[in-house]
Amino acid sequence: MMTHWTESLIPFQRGRTAIVTGTGGLGYRTAQALAASGARVIIAGRNTDKGAAAVQRIRSEVPQSLVDFALLDLASLSSISQFCRRLQDTHGCVDLLINNAAVMAPPQRCSTEDGFELQFGTNYLGHFALTAQLLPLLRAAPQPRVVTVSSVAARSGKISFDDLQSEHAYRPMSAYAQSKLACLLFSIELQRRSQAMGWNIRSIGAHPGVSRTDLIANGAGAQSAAGLLRRYFWFLFQPVEQGALPILYAATAEEAEAGAYYGPDKLGETRGFPAPARVPRQALDRGVAERLWQVSEQLAGVRFT
Questions:
Q1: Looking at domain 13-299, which of 3.90.1640.10, 3.40.50.2300, 3.40.190.120, 3.40.50.720 is its CATH number?
Q2: Which of 25, 35, 17, 4 shows the shortest CA–CA distance to 239?
Q3: Rounded mean pLDDT of 2-24?
Q4: Measured between alpha carbons, how far is 260 from 204 in angstroms, rounded to an integer?
Q5: Are 99 and 21 in contact (CB under 8 A)?
Q6: Is it the case that residue 261 has pLDDT exceeding 70?
């Protein structure tokens, strides 16, 4: 049924408001496809120049598209709160939230504005806080969805409750894998709570396989081992257009199941077309999910109410 699902199968999105975090790579491609299908799209990011360029490019590629940029720094809890307050003043509901933006494997440990390890704070905790504060607008929509982007790296991740912020030992890829496992845990637990509390939100996880984005260059660096692999073995990385498909499938396909996880279908989920992805064992651990949720509410100062 899902064989070779492509953007051409995206249902008409006119009348729906979508928020996509991240101005480049997968975020850009996702926003472009949603705009082309008629959605009103808000690209949320921390770089106003890149955001403005993304909006201008989509408007030139998709005439009459309804797309705007909004300032949002996921590494700042105050920026997240300001973004959500502005949205509550200007929008009656949010139909689709795509938690996509990420930082990958900076060689040295960095911190967010609030003192969290950069990858955990940006990739996971920032999106957790964003979703919590957008909950009223999501619940006001008739058929809301939240898509949270994880990674094949989540398979090797472990939630280290005794060192969530990598203060005792910082290993770039281990911290990245933990943040992406946390994203998947959140996606699944959000669906459990939505069903239990009657929020009517369809929460779905997705990952892009291994795609040609600037994530490695912006994080680990172009001269890192991963950066050199990306440059000289580019053919191992599928195009961004292909990597965005599982995200778009989770965001728009009627048959995309609540609480499910989607990724590419070929070569160990590194490339291909959207299909159900293998969920790492720890991502199904309800005890870990509930503990992470409680810790996250405390760290971010938010509640899902």
A1: 3.40.50.720
A2: 25
A3: 94
A4: 5
A5: yes
A6: yes
Coil, strand or helix: which one is 237?
coil
Mean pLDDT for the chain overall: 92
Cα torsion 156, 157, 158, 161 to 10°: value is 160
- Using DSSP's 3-state secondary structure scheme, residue 43 falls into strand
What SS3 class is residue 77? helix
Lowest-pLDDT range of 51-55, 80-84, 156-160, 237-241: 237-241
| Reported pTM | 0.92
Residue of 149, 18, 130 lying closest to 74 (CA atoms): 130
Task: Kindly indicate the confidence band of residue 237, based on its pLDDT and cuts at 50, 70 and 90.
Answer: low
Inter-residue contact 144 to 129 (CB < 8 Å): no
How many C-beta atoms lie closer than 10 Å to residue 59's C-beta? 15
Distances (CA, A) of 201 to 8, 188, 197, 249: 25, 12, 10, 16
Confidence class for position 211, pLDDT limits 50, 70, 90 = confident
- Marked catalytic residue, from 28, 176, 249, 262: 176
Query: 262 an active-site residue?
Result: no
Query: Residue 42 pLDDT > 50, yes or no?
Result: yes
Neighbours of 106 (CB within 10 A): 19
